[in-house]
Amino acid sequence: MLLIDNESNTPLHLTILEHICKEHTPKEVELVIIDGKSMHKLNLEHRGMDKTTDVLSFPVDDFPHAPLGSIVINYELAEQKAKELGHSTEEEITLLFIHGMLHLLGFDHEIDSGEMREQEKAWIKQYNLPESLIVRTEE
């Protein structure tokens, strides 16, 4: 199940987002869409990085009936990246959601041997989306 808190009223591909959740976890996933200033604050508070970012994931410790976690997306950076790359904001947010979802499922591109990257590529192809940042930066 997908719970959404969209502070910006940014359009979303709800059908695809819900399908991703339903297909990959029986647990609840929260999607929060916020502005760059709020994301900067979260990034500083939780990662010690004094800058904004495009997506953050917050997994919940596993216990009975626990949600999988929260994915927070910076809609301002998503809009900017979508314009820059010539696809829709909805597509960019979906790409960021996939990235965040993989982190919630335990993948970590910063320490793995490419497993997250391969899984992300497969999901992007499965949902017929443009290449994500992680795919774009490897070439």
What can you see in these coordinates?
The model has no long low-confidence stretch (mean pLDDT 89). This protein has 139 residues and is α/β, with parallel strands linked by helices. Helix 1 (14-24) runs parallel beside helix 4 (89-104) and helix 3 packs across helix 4 (89-104). The protein has a 4-stranded mixed sheet with strand order 1-2-4-3, sandwiched between helices. The chain is 47% helix and 16% strand. The protein has 6 helices and 4 strands; from the N terminus they run E-H-E-H-E-E-H-H-H-H. It has a single domain, classed as 3-Layer(aba) Sandwich (Collagenase (Catalytic Domain)). The radius of gyration is 14 Å and the shape is globular.
Name the average pLDDT.
Answer: 89
Global morphology: globular
Q: How many strands?
A: 4
User: Rg from C-alpha positions?
Assistant: 14 Å
* Secondary-structure class: alpha/beta
Q: How much strand content do the residues show? A: 15-25%
Would you tell me which CATH topology applies? Collagenase (Catalytic Domain)
In short, what is this structure?
The protein is an alpha/beta fold and 139 residues long. The protein is 47% helix and 16% strand. A 4-stranded mixed β-sheet has the order 1-2-4-3, with helices on both faces.
